[in-house]
Automatic annotation (TrEMBL):
Keywords: Membrane, Transmembrane, Transmembrane helix
Ranges that cross the membrane: 35-53, 65-83, 128-147, 154-175, 195-216
Protein name: ECF transporter S component
Secretion signal span: none
Superkingdom of source: Bacteria
Recorded GO MF terms: transmembrane transporter activity
Pfam family, one: ECF_trnsprt
Gene3D superfamilies reported for this sequence: 1.10.1760.20
Length: 236
């Protein structure tokens, strides 16, 4: 039990050490580049999130449902890989987070990125994609907490926003890994170059939600009610 309590502070300390060593500029971490450093930090952050999920009160049914949602989102991504940044993963992760909450949304998004990249190619971009889609699920769960009656218009706008946010998060990894020098001019140029790809992503998210969002949400809400009933019966 004591070891479990130490995991969180040790992981945060590791992130802090990596940042300090990189700023000094006279060590192995600095020489490997900001791109690899960002991947290492992202891996530690993801490990913390998965560890927190494992420590929480999660039923076997919920774990199975999250695994299925992640797999479905991953399979849905593969056929659209040839299209320029149009993919159903984001809207499916958002609906999962909105219906089941932030924790399930994060796990669905991160699982979808990891599983789909077994078909599309793993690489240092995978932790960033896991984090970006996981964060989309987290914020969708927060939206449900703050605005539980968000309708089609509000969710469509939210999906559009995340079409851009996902691209901006991935741009940060691309900028640190492949662009030199790292200054505000190269930063602005990187984000400007991705504008149309991010717009395609946002438009695709809106189209997917308008055509399939309502029915997909009803299906997940039905499963959520069954999970709640089974959980109450198990307590009694």
């Amino acid at each position: 039990m004591r070891g479990r309590k130490l995991i969180f502070p040790l992981a945060l300390a590791a992130i802090l050490v990596l940042l300090i060593l990189s700023i000094q500029g006279r060590n192995i971490v600095a020489r490997q580049g900001w791109g690899m450093l960002s991947v290492e930090i992202m891996v530690i952050a993801l490990a913390l999130c998965y560890w927190g999920f494992e420590q929480g009160r999660v039923s076997s049914r919920e774990v199975a449902l999250i695994a299925v949602l992640g797999a479905v989102a991953a399979v849905g991504r593969v056929p659209f890989a040839a299209l320029p940044n149009i993919q159903p993963v984001t809207f499916m992760v958002i609906i999962s987070g909105f219906v089941f909450g932030s924790r399930a949304g994060f796990m669905t998004g991160s699982t979808a990125a990891l599983v789909s990249n077994f078909f599309l190619g793993q690489g240092p971009w995978t932790p960033w994609q896991m984090f970006a889609w996981g964060l989309a699920g987290v914020t969708a769960g927060l939206i449900r907490m703050v605005f539980p009656r968000t309708g089609t218009a509000g969710m469509t706008v939210f999906c559009i926003i995340w079409g851009y946010l996902y691209g901006w998060i991935m741009n940060l990894w691309f900028w640190t890994a492949f662009v030199q020098p790292l200054n505000w001019q190269s930063f602005a140029a990187t984000y400007a170059a991705s504008f149309w790809f991010d717009t395609f992503h946002a438009a695709g998210n809106a189209a997917f939600y308008l055509f399939f969002g309502a029915s997909f949400k009803k299906i997940l809400a039905r499963f959520r009610r069954k999970l709640e009933v089974n959980f109450i019966e198990s307590i009694e």
